Amino acid sequence: MTSSNEQRYRFSEAPIWDIQRRYYEELGTKAWNNDQVPQYITSNPMIAAAYAEVIFGFLQDRVNKGNGSEPVVIVELGAGAGRFAYHLLDELCRLRDYAGIELPPFRYVMTDLALNNVLAWKEHPALQAFIAEGLLDFARYDAAHDTVLNLVVSGTTISEGDLKQPLIIVANYFFDGIPQELIYVGDGKIYEADVYVQGLEPMDSLKPSEWLERINLRYEHRRAPEYEQETYPYRDVISIYQEHLEDSHILFPAAGLTCLERLNLLSQAGFVLITADKGDHLLDQWKFAEPPELILHGSFSLTANYHAIQYFFEQRGALALFPPHHYKNINVGCILHLDKPMEYVNSRLAYRRCMERFGPDDFFNMKVWIDRHVESMGMPELLSFWRLGGYDAEFFIQSAKRISNLLPDANDDEKQDLLRGIQKMWSSYYVMEQRYDLALDAGLLLFEMEMYEQSKRYLEISVKQDPDEVVSTVYYCLAICCFELEIEEDAWTYVRKLLELEPDHEEALALMSQFDSNI
């Protein structure tokens, strides 16, 4: 029975999807503040490097097939805060420069539904060098409707058939957050699982996150023979579910499949999809599946149906690569929707090396364990994991206190490796909307290691970034650095600034007394 405060919807047309759009459009890049929307697992340097390796292999394959002159376009769907795109481009350029071999030119296009995100990327300091080199462009893209890519920087439009090279599509945490159909398989028949939204209040009266927290969903099956008709475009996939599943609720990615088909039309040569999500590609994982529950994180997400995407394109000659083992947090797949996909040897080897044997899901599983055991780790273990993660800033921030505690017993080699790691981390650091003073942590650790020149550099960056929030310790360390480097005029300047903040600072007063006695 339907209560007075609930309404019935087809699942893909329920108001939860309008709320999802509103959430991201209103918050822009602030949606990822405090990890409200999870981003680390698909935005760290390790996963970006794995994608870069696959793309680099693909670029090699195109040259080997005699297609090295035309540019390759890489489109990221739902680029969010932009951190992943930055790390991927940074690593791809490093691979290109290190290898020094012939490759097709490439251009990365960051897209998102939220225009605020597009505008924020365009002005982000870390992305300016890529824009200037012509490697990066942006587009607002609505995956549910748009058929072309209108590029912001170049002012050009990519339309049907414009691309001679295959299009590379990057889609992380994308398919789980766009509208999906919800079907139910029972007795060999297909039903739609309509959703009743309970506790519905006017959307304008609440923030999107508050609205999602207050509603309840319940489901009711409705016979849907249209899915069983030969005219239904994804009939081949549906028939598999009818044949092999029973009493199962299936999130069906009709919108995701349609989006991929539209993007495929942009190129004359197919596409390569590299994607990571909470998503199952194994049919067994959908057996006896219960109705979905919204996973709330400011917005919400569901499980992506990689099985449907994989099967649909495999039936059209594509090669789908997914790990043979079960995933824990994210499933990373690659679909080569190309002519003779088995000939893309370098692409396939890169996937095997960077996703299948040990991939982003394995790395994140290890990090979850390490997060709980940082305080018991030694310097060699900390340095090793930091290297494995591509000198990730988040791990450095998390382990800085432990590193500091270990410094008294660290040898010169370990200190030199710390310095090198800090330099590499800083060279590829992407500042998020919610800032963290990474330069301060780096500068203080280097000060403890008596690396005064390097410490001075990072501490001065920290002061310049937020001059109104400087603590007295920073000015004291800067003064000592300058004294050690024999830059006495700057040293006395920092001593005076220290005393302005803390007039009773004993060490500063002693230094000033010495200075006055020498006059």
Question: What does it look like?
Answer:
The mean pLDDT is 91. Helix content is 45%, strand content 17%. With 519 residues, it is α/β, with parallel strands linked by helices. The protein has helices spanning 15-27, 45-64, 83-99, 115-123, 128-132, 208-214, 235-244, 254-264, 306-314, 345-356, 360-373, 379-388, 393-406, 412-427, 438-448, 452-465, 472-484, 488-501, 506-518, and strands spanning 6-9, 72-77, 106-112, 136-140, 149-150, 157-158, 167-172, 181-186, 189-198, 216-223, 248-252, 271-277, 279-280, 295-297, 299-301, 304-305, 319-321, 331-337. It is built from 19 helices and 18 strands. The strands form five sheets. The protein has a seven-stranded mixed sheet, sandwiched between helices. Strands 1, 8, 9, 10 and 11 form a five-stranded antiparallel sheet that branches. InterPro entries: NDUFAF7_sf, SAM-dependent_MTases_sf, TPR-like_helical_dom_sf. This is Tetratricopeptide repeat protein.
How would you sum up this structure in a few lines?
With 519 residues, this protein is of the alpha/beta class. 45% of the residues lie in helices and 17% in strands.
The biggest beta sheet reads: 7 strands, mixed
- Helix proportion: 40-55%
Q: How do the strands line up in the largest sheet?
A: 4-3-2-7-12-18-17
Q: Structural class of the helices, strands and pairings?
A: alpha/beta
CA gyration radius, whole angstroms: 27 Å
Quick one: how many beta strands?
A: 18
Mean pLDDT: 91
Instruction: Give the distance, in angstroms, between the N- and C-terminal Cα atoms.
Output: 91 Å
Spans of at least 5 consecutive residues whose pLDDT stays below 50 are: none
Shape: globular
The number of helices is: 19
* Strand residue content: 15-25%
